[in-house]
Amino acid sequence: MLNLYNTLTRKKEEFVPLNEKKVTMYSCGPTVYSYAHIGNMRTYIFMDLLRRVLKYDGFKIKGVMNITDVGHLQSDADEGEDKMEKAAKKEKKTPWEIAEYYTNVFFDDLQKLNIGKPEIIAKATEHIDDMIKYVEKLIELGYAYETSDGIYYDISKFKNYGQLSRLNLDEQIAGARVEVNPEKRNPYDFAVWKKAPKEHIMQWPSPWGMGYPGWHIECSTMSIKYLGQHFDIHTGGVDHIPVHHENEIAQNEAITGKKSVNYWCHGEFMLVNNGKMSKSLGNVYTVSDLEKKGYEPLVYRYFCLNAHYRNKLNFTFEGMDGAKTSYNRLLQQVYAHKNSNAVTDKEVIDGYLNEFREAIDDDLNLPLALGVLWKAVKEPKSKDIYNLAIEMDKVFGLRLDEYKPAPQTLADVPEEVQKLIELRKEAKANKDWANADKYRNEITALGYQIKDTKEGVEVTKI
Ligand code: AMP
Ligand code: ZN
Q1: Which of 35, 32, 82, 73 has the alpha carbon at shortest distance from 284?
Q2: What's the CA-to-centroid distance between 259 and ligand 2, angstroms?
């Protein structure tokens, strides 16, 4: 039985899907005006772990992730320049070229980190007509109004505004420093559609002239379109709780007249040296930066698995070095079981599997689940333990089955083994197959595996 922490109720709840076998899940995707950093990727690793746990528990998933390739203004308060356009000007490319480039890099990063792509990837620019329909509907229902620069959602019309973040709006407004647009009815009203100035490159015709959508309406439109008015899970990072997701709820519930999402699941932030990642501090790292510094992307995945997704995780290079050592050791220890003919009692294996499932079903306690794997690999060598590790890896996604130790040069191998290799070579030359096999077994017993290749014998440590 899977339990998930629901931000809406602030409780761990048993997960009961609306449709028994097909879970509907929406994940806020990247804004593709720049490279995604490792903090962003932590949130997508969390999404991936949730998808893997659901699959492990026998569910099928219809997952949707958006690609924000338009808008997403500089701040959540909808002020400022369009990030896509700003990047386009800087890089002397069209916003479409910028979006395509960074979307592809994002997909490469997903692949490198072994993050499964959701079933449906929805680009905002391909859903403009649907968004316009929802904006019209919001106006029709009295939830949105027109100003000189756009269409705004009137939050005073939605009595449950603030339910997800438990905001006390009156207090917030009293202390707010946001520059109040005099045409807005309430300071926290947000744009669902912006009228475009002439020089704005990305713009579409609408009943309110040329313009472009607000960021929040993208996610509402695409989630309803693909998952229906009421769906199971919505994921994102914790920074999205107070504005973006609050606004999504306000829009969805106004449009459909009912509750839209059953489980709101949020991943905590990644910090760097206990602080915020920021360009000005020069501590914004991408997956490629880590590779350049000698860390395999999966070392970062392993690093993330060591913290619960609802705890802040502090990124340091010392921490990454620790993760690198542990991950490599884990790969070797799992591999050491692979070629064993010995067996492990079924009871022992089942015991580990139960512990593992209990951990992952308890709101994705991956650090605990990883501890179970570490305990298991310390058992005497057996193929059953190898198979168990590979089974657990359906959730960890650490590509444990792809590990192959690097072949060693003969000089690194103990003399005893070198002698046996030589003896085997002679036996083979004399077509003395019985002895050749005998020497091979002796080599295996000493912990080495040999393979005949065109270039000669390849030796690896088992
Ligand atoms: P954005 O492209 O800014 O919408 O961010 C993409 C995703 O990354 C969102 O789900 C954010 O909540 C998440 N995110 C942003 N910064 C961090 C961070 N430092 N740690 C973890 N997740 C983050
Ligand atoms: Zn979103």
Answers
A1: 35
A2: 17
